[in-house]
TrEMBL record:
The keyword DNA damage applies. InterPro entries: DNA/RNA_pol_sf (IPR043502), SulA_CellDiv_inhibitor (IPR050356), UmuC (IPR001126). Keywords: DNA damage. This is Protein ImuB.
């Protein structure tokens, strides 16, 4: 019994209920809800409340509304279910390494190689169930992928032990399945019906020669795979290195402060994604899809890398404080591809700075609140001229050249433009000549700098030009 199949028969509906449960501002007194496939205009998913009122899968939309006029009707979205199935696979990957996606609603798991690791089928199944809360699904295990899929897709919720008794129960369960539920062409199903073959047990008893004479090769191939007599090529799931989640809101959001509620579960999923891979994210992009307006992208950055959802939520909250929505938000997409291996961070147990923001975290918070362009960094430059020796930049250059300190004393505060000296001062130190022959900025500079004190007791840094003009260039603290 090495294969386990999970059939998520109402994945989109479960996703809707999870989003409602995560939003504390929504009244959770649920109406009867159905999801309708637009191609056939038929009910493909229905909540328990709708089923109690007589609505069945495959029923037309008009008939369903006639039975219950207050139904909540949603369109079936296969792309959303494919994305949700990817997320389920990511949840199960740490528990079961060999997964096969059977879009849009199925997962096939190779379980034989995992039983020793989990010390038996029961322990393994408990781990699976823990990861799948609170999703609804059918499940079954069997000797072949096709047999497990057939049982699960027909509503079975049973695990068969790999014993003679368990194998006998498996054969009996397969034999009871109607042939009309087999994944075959309609022509083959109609021929089985006309021959009076209504259940799988009658089909399995037919000689292969008789089957090959009356049916095409599709039925022969299916029976060979069902009995595990023919191998089935499988494309095993590989975890994605890029995190991407799409959330279609079932109610429009007009206030930017309210966005933190639906985005927080997505950030928690990002945390799980990063922790499973021992990664830290450096940038997270949140795309807001607006109604009848251009989309808005919120970019959150963490200079040192971050994996915790609470930290990203704090940055998002600062970003939302200055966001004005020109139109209501209909959908949210979160995307992260800039990540790095998580580093070893050591902190002293009794350090007085324990629990405080680091320099990088402080800068990330300021950039989220004020905007990246409003944060300026002081950068040094290779120039002897004081006003040219540094400059402000919105990008911090961590690899900039570290220049040796000048020989003379320098003030703490430098004036943007030197001011002409008007008061009497007392010179204490100098001169210190700073001279530039004109190689920088095509302008020659020749100055004699002094340290002086004015009548108010302030210490000045001033210079004298060759024309005997005196200027104040800075003040000492």
């Amino acid at each position: 019994m090495r294969w386990l199949y999970l059939h998520f028969y109402q994945l989109q509906l479960d996703h809707l209920y999870q989003e409602e449960a995560s939003d504390t501002s929504v009244d959770h007194q649920r109406r009867a809800t159905i999801i309708v496939d637009g191609q056939g205009n038929e009910v493909c998913q229905a909540c328990p409340s709708a089923r109690q009122q007589g609505i069945r899968l495959g029923m037309g939309l008009a008939a369903a509304i006639a039975m219950q006029s207050k139904l909540q009707v949603l369109d079936y979205r296969p792309l959303l279910e494919q994305e949700l199935l990817q997320h389920v696979a990511e949840l199960l990957y740490p528990v079961s390494a060999s997964l096969v996606l059977q879009t849009p609603q199925g997962l096939l798991l190779e379980i034989q190689s995992m039983l020793r690791y989990h010390r038996g089928l029961d322990n393994y199944w408990q781990q699976i169930q823990q990861q799948l809360k609170p999703l609804n699904y059918f499940y079954a295990n069997a000797h072949s992928p096709w047999a497990a899929q057939l049982l699960a897709c027909n509503g079975y919720q049973q695990l068969f032990q790999d014993t003679p008794e368990g194998q006998q129960k498996l054969k009996q369960s397969l034999a009871q399945i109607p042939c009309s539920r087999l994944p075959l062409k309609k022509s083959n199903l109609d021929r089985l019906e006309s021959l009076g073959i209504h259940h799988v047990d009658r089909l399995l008893k037919l000689p292969l020669q008789e089957i090959s004479r009356r049916f095409d090769e599709e039925l022969l191939l299916y029976l060979g795979r069902l009995n595990n007599e023919l191998s089935t090529p499988l494309a095993y799931y590989q975890p994605r290195e890029i995190f991407e989640r799409q959330l279609q809101l079932f109610y429009e959001i007009y206030d930017s402060d309210t966005l933190i509620k639906p985005i927080s579960p997505l950030l928690e999923q990002l945390q799980q994604f990063l922790q499973q891979r021992d990664l830290q994210a450096r940038q997270v992009d949140i795309h807001l899809q607006l109604r009848d307006s251009e989309n808005i992208t919120l970019t959150l950055r963490a200079s040192r890398g971050e994996e915790k959802a609470k930290r990203w939520q704090a940055l998002l909250q600062l970003r939302l404080e200055r966001l004005q929505l020109p139109a209501p938000v209909e959908a949210i997409r979160i995307f992260c591809e800039q990540h790095q291996r998580r580093g070893q961070e050591h902190a002293e147990l009794f350090s007085p700075h324990q629990g405080q923001l680091s320099r990088e975290q402080l800068l990330d918070s300021l950039q989220a609140r004020l905007g990246k362009q409003r944060i300026q960094f002081l950068q040094t430059a290779n120039s002897h001229i004081p006003e040219h020796s540094n400059h402000l930049s919105s990008q911090e250059d961590k690899d900039q050249l570290t220049l040796p300190p000048p020989d003379g004393l320098r003030p703490s505060f430098l004036l943007p433009v030197p001011q002409q000296l008007k008061d009497e001062v007392l010179l204490f130190y100098g001169p210190e000549r700073i001279q530039n022959p004109g190689w920088e900025d095509d302008k020659a500079v020749e100055r004699d700098y002094f340290i002086a004190r004015d009548q108010q007791g302030r210490w000045l840094w001033l210079f004298k030009t060759p024309a005997k003009h005196w200027f104040v260039h800075g003040y000492f603290a």
